[in-house]
Write a structure and sequence with these properties.
2 copies of one chain form a homodimer. Chain A is an all-alpha fold. Helix content of chain A is about 70%, strand content about 0%. In chain A, helix 7 crosses helix 10 and helix 9 packs parallel to helix 11. The first copy, chain A, is globular.
Chain lengths: ~400, ~400
């Protein structure tokens, strides 16, 4: 099986000869998996694959899978509606909000399924490749549904975890019902995800997906219970970010490859793509929490720092202005401290360096796609280009 | 494979020729599974198996598996302690409380494992039955751990769902942290349960256990969102009770049999035992909520009715005094309504009929044990007697 042009670098430890950077931190907290990541190349050299006929067509990653996305959205709504009518309200809340990234995860996973649609074995018994391929696609769609259910479940539970104090002004019954619904609806979605998972009957995929759920909890716990020292640690922040955001991308992308019976190498490339896409996504999210407006962010601007959550821009600013550590230590209950931190951030390269780190991870994600086995199939090439395009959108978005 | 003396009745629909009773309700809401339940026989005829040498020894079901129980408890504590230290508090809260039934589920499951320790195939390749048997036992212990984790997770989430209003007098941070910890600790346990489940690598068991989680949520939702008509329905109550309590027993008992590679018939008998034990357990719990004292119940007496939860004794009382429906419809926000309901209950046969229904289900559970394949092995016979003894304790307990 032939690999793309980045393949030769895969035998060496990534970045072994280059200067250490924060992107290297990734290797510390997910050491095994990170080893197969390709070395960093400049973005411009990566977004121009050889076949110009494919790249010159205008491309919208979301429209490539629009039909399947609506199929998946309908199935998810049906599941929620049919079983317990009261849960529909909670689920619809998140469907209606128009949150950025609402269909981002299923889009990535469906595109990954097409990007890996190579060397499909034809069933010897039935001699019906299209039916085999249809069955595989249905199983891969199931992963997209499961990932979305887990994502929405984590949003529902975050509502209880993060916003409980905001609701205290509301009447007692509503407050309690809000928590009840959020917890039960989250549990309900997780349980439905597990049932769907059981139906796939694949132990490796089961383990990968359950790892996502476990990581989400660990990440939330790390955020909730961090010591002052941990709050100042870039390594801790990256580990938490992997658990809370990137694990869902990495493990579900790998699941798509596992279901397709791809080699361990291809599965690891899918994992590395998801991992780095997820990290880049969250880093930009953290930047936008400072630079965006309330409307464009879809949540209150500066919401992280106001909740005492220290993210990459502030951590980088701390390196230039160590006195910022004391401000962070005091906490952000006082709005004055938020302003002090923002002053330091403005004077520092914090925002810039966080964006650079996001770009490094985006490059690693792109490199993983370019390291996939060679193919001449247009659909596969277009899907790979769409995954690269999505990655670029993630780091260049302004909302 | 030979079956016990109740086997002949299994071909007929249970209770087909007898008067309808509330025990029949069971067949409506879990129709498929209930079909293999044996007909009801009097308790006195069931608790005297033929082998007097076994039955005459004094027997304590809990001490039979004491060593394994402490092994399981240690493993569970280690899992909670090792991963996220902050969760230990939440988990220990439930370990410390000394709640009745704390080790009830693992006890039932370990005894079921021994009760089904029959016709074990010896590994042809290794010729080492003891090692095979040791491995099976370890897998069955894993089911006991998983069941306990799911049970404790549901207690932790119930804390958020039921007691949120009670905590409102406490400072904001504690309140929010209480909810946070309860939700996260519950999720953590569920996720650990799923990881343990994945390691068993058995799709049928996975589906059975995930069904428990799904049923727990559905049951909680049914309790939270019932209409006035549903509140007055015995069928609705029994269905909710199955989901909230009995499903854990039925599906985990069946899992024990599935892991042991028992026949579908034996697995169904294990299911029927768990199902009816669980129903009997909850019915008596609901009776004790009226008749017990606060101390002996481990929670405030009358707590169900004060939370507006209508259980079997009141439902039976309603049949004798239809005017009680109006009181239930008004709700129990006013303590006066609680007193009116208690007056009706006292005049009715509500408590008595709830106990009779519990006894009917206990008999069905005992019948299932007596219908298991014949054996001459003392350990197996003792374990079966212990399961019968446990069932009797469930319906005769006063706390």
């Amino acid at each position: 099986m032939g690999f793309g042009r980045a393949a030769s670098s895969r035998a060496q430890p990534p970045m072994a000869s280059s200067e250490p950077s924060w992107a290297d931190i990734g290797r510390i907290w997910v050491p095994e998996r990170f080893r197969c990541g390709a070395s960093i190349a400049s973005m411009s050299s990566l977004i121009h694959p050889a076949r110009s006929s494919v790249i010159e067509e205008p491309l919208d990653p979301f429209s490539l899978v629009a039909e399947e996305l609506s199929l998946i959205a309908n199935r998810l709504r049906l599941m929620v509606d049919a079983e317990v009518p009261s849960l529909a309200l909670a689920a619809k809340y998140f469907f209606k909000m128009g949150v950025e990234g609402k269909r981002f995860r299923p889009t990535v996973l469906l595109l990954m399924a097409s990007a890996l649609n190579i060397s499909k074995p034809i069933s010897a018994s039935t001699g019906a490749p299209s039916s085999v391929s249809h069955k595989l696609r249905a199983r891969q769609q199931c992963i997209a549904e499961i990932a979305e259910m887990i994502h929405v479940a984590s949003l529902l539970h975050d509502d209880v975890l993060d916003d409980a104090d905001k609701r205290r002004g509301i009447g007692s019954l509503n407050f309690v019902m809000g928590n009840k619904l959020a917890v039960l609806a989250g549990n309900f979605l997780l349980s439905r995800a597990c049932i769907a998972l059981a139906s796939l009957n694949n132990t490796e995929v089961l383990t990968l997906i359950v790892t996502i759920i476990d990581n989400l909890i660990t990440g939330e716990m790390m955020q909730m219970k961090s010591t002052s020292e941990q709050c100042n640690s870039m390594e801790y922040y990256m580990q938490k970010t992997y658990y809370k955001t990137a694990s869902l991308f990495s493990n579900s992308c790998k699941s798509i490859a596992v279901l397709a019976d791809q080699t361990e190498e291809v599965a690891e490339l899918a994992y590395v793509y998801g991992q780095n896409l997820g990290l880049a996504y969250q880093l930009i999210d953290d930047v936008l929490d400072f630079t965006g407006t309330s409307a464009s962010l879809g949540k209150g601007s500066l919401s992280d720092i106001r909740h005492g959550i220290v993210t990459a821009p502030i951590l980088f600013a701390m390196e230039e202005f160590p006195q910022l550590r004391d401000v962070v230590k005091q906490g952000f209950h006082k709005p004055a401290n938020v302003n002090v931190a923002l002053d330091y951030l403005g004077k520092s390269r914090g925002i810039e360096r966080a964006k650079e780190l996001a770009a490094e991870h985006a490059n690693r994600a792109i490199e993983a796609i370019n390291s996939l086995p060679k193919t001449d199939t247009d659909e596969v090439l277009i899907s790979r280009r769409a995954l690269i395009d999505l990655t670029q959108r993630v780091v260049t978005r302004t909302q």
